[in-house]
């Protein structure tokens, strides 16, 4: 299991609304954090490792929408410190979507 010390990309703690689609349903959820390779989505949906999902994210401040395909890397049970949800690994984003995501994450990097 990966720990925060072994992540390839910095995770930014942000709550971004998104539309979450999987094989069963469509619903609005929120991120807990985001990076250049994935995000954590707060959700009570029971998704298994490897399940494919499509997310539509609206970048804060710019209102740019990007569609992201990904898979469930892990499912986290809730505890006293953490909400229940799933870690999503990005596998496909359009070139324009990557640019929008990079611009947003660059702005977050500058805040630290």
Concise synopsis of the structure shown:
With 112 residues, this protein is of the alpha+beta class. The chain has one helix at residues 95-111; strands at residues 17-21, 26-34, 38-42, 52-58, 65-76, 85-93.
Strand % is 35-45%
Element pattern in H and E? EEEEEEH
Overall pLDDT confidence: 87
- Biggest sheet record: 6 strands, antiparallel, barrel
Counted beta strands: 6
Strand order of the largest sheet: 1-2-3-6-5-4
| Global geometry | globular
Poorly predicted ranges:
1-5
Percent helix, as a range, is 10-25%
Structural class: alpha+beta
Distance between the termini: 27 Å
Question: What is the helix tally?
Answer: 1
Radius of gyration: 13 Å
Structure explained in plain terms:
This protein is α+β, with helices and mostly antiparallel strands and 112 residues long. Helices cover 15% and strands 42% of the residues. It is built from 1 helix and 6 strands; from the N terminus they run ββββββα. The protein has one helix spanning 95-111; strands at 17-21, 26-34, 38-42, 52-58, 65-76, 85-93. A 6-stranded antiparallel barrel has the order 1-2-3-6-5-4. β4 (52-58) and β5 form a beta hairpin. The radius of gyration is 13 Å and the shape is globular.
List keywords for this structure.
112 residues, alpha+beta, six-stranded antiparallel β-barrel, 6 strands, globular
Element layout with pairings:
Layout: E1 17-21, E2 26-34, E3 38-42, E4 52-58, E5 65-76, E6 85-93, H1 95-111
Antiparallel strand pairs: 1-2, 1-4, 2-3, 3-6, 4-5, 5-6
